[in-house]
Amino acid sequence: MIRATTLSLLLLALLGCAKEAVPPPAPPRPSILLVTLDTTRADAIGPATPAFNALAARGQRFTQAYATAPQTLPSHSSMMTGLYPAGHGVHENARFLGDQNAVLAQKLHDAGYRTAAFVSGFPVARRFGLARGFDVYDDEFEIERSSRETTDRTIAFLRSETQRPLFLWVHYYDPHHPYAPPEPFRTRYAKNPYLGEVAAMDEQLGRLLQAFGDGAIIVVADHGEGLGDHGESQHGYLLYQSVMHVPLVMAGPDIRPGTSDAPISTRRIFHTILHWAGVATDPAPQQEVVTGEAMAPFLDFGWQPQVMAVEGRTKTIRAGAIETYDVIGDPGETRDLGSDAIPRNVRNVLAEYPLPSAEATKPANLSEEERRRFASLGYITSAAKPAIRADAPRPRDMTPLFEDLENASTLFVREQYAAAIPLLEKIVRADPHNLGTILRLAAAHSNLGHNDAALAAFRKAEAIAPDSEDVRLYLALHYARTEEWERAVPMLKAFPDRVPALEALGDLSMRLGRTQDAIDAYERARALEGTQFQHDLELGVLYLAARRFEDARAALDRVPPSHPGYPMALFKRAQVSVLLNEPDRAARIASARERADATTRGLIERETLFRNQPVP
Ligand SMILES: [Zn+2]
User: Fold this and answer.
1) What is the mean pLDDT of residues 382-405?
2) What pTM was estimated for this model as a whole?
């Protein structure tokens, strides 16, 4: 009897323990979909966007959502970190989101989420730092890909991938300039091809939402498009509603349908998604003055830095002078209400908004090829350090130059220097302190062999920015071009982390027969560039000259068949093969012969190493 009672008590005790030890079952965490619509104005939402509208009907629509910057990389960096550009340090495209801040995907991944991203445009390619924390980061395109292609790939992934919960980020790029919608939207929107791009993208959004199924969903734009408002055709130069006011909708099991008219920054997407996932994070303040910035014209041209703040229906822009608008009553921002209309807290927020530091303006290490890809998208990627001048022009006063700046940039990066020079000179006449343009003018003259004109432009650039690294780098590249070895080498060596300097140093050293210097420079560039490195043929030739045959073999094996010097790589590889006494050396000689071009044919026939080799 006693024994049974003891057993019962023991069982009860155990049960009690078990009851206390096992926490109540956690509510299942939702799969989360974030869709970012590139270059989509808030007022593009309407009859052209039935899929977006259907989502908004069952979710919460934010009528006053603001991007943190009118450019792709800084804006996305804010969504992924919860910080304004002043916090994460990415103020313009072609920079790099460093690992000093926690990112959304990493936090979700650490919390047990499967994480995947499918992106569509070069400004958010893996190398710019947004891929951290993603198990899958699909950026397989040269410059951009259509929303149809991105959606096809995403849907294929959703079918094969069963692990849940899932965090999925899909980025669409279609509405970005140039506007060339596919049929039937091309015909339907013949008079407004920009809206045609938005409509084509919305069709794919509908397919994506259907494939994703149940879960929590955010659809948002990274910034808008000027379309001529305030003299801006695209985006990146100014802070008006056309580029900063964006569509935003959130939908999911716990979200009450409705509309919110309070101003909200798209950086809050970070906090919202972590809240949905049950991941603890510093809460964003409930009430805050929403801010934004456009620093690219400041960083690239030396114009006034631009900051904005929105509270209620009042938006204030500080860009040299102050402008204030009632964005509800006057969404076109046509009537400046003057500085008396600014609330004191907004004044403080604007005064305290930090300007970019020199460190924050360090460029991503773009190769020449990547600079070309940016130019084809209409972006300028100069790397001038910030030089703040009290008399710097206000960006809104410079609108007549926007088109010339874009065209000059495109010509420059496509290496059409003779055509670029008159345009660059025209810009400098109108804006004599525009450092980025003066440097391009100097480089254009240098490339065409106009040495006096190049040096005159460099002197002008040095007078504007005596401490600028960029001026010294471009000047060093000029001396490399003119083979002024004694001048160029010490200057180039001052840039051990800049790919263009290392490539120039490698090329110059090679031409001057300094094999070891050339190997060192190219290897350093290769370490920085990874798979983007394009000088493996040079490295192979250099290692062969240094009689480092194993290194030569490795370098030559990395030269892809698409490389214009591939026949040379095969010839050099055959030489290495003979020198290493490889069993397949005869086959390699045969293959070099077979693929020989005008340059290598004679070299192969005269090569004494190839005599007396067995026939394959
Ligand atoms: Zn964008």
Assistant:
1) 80
2) 0.82
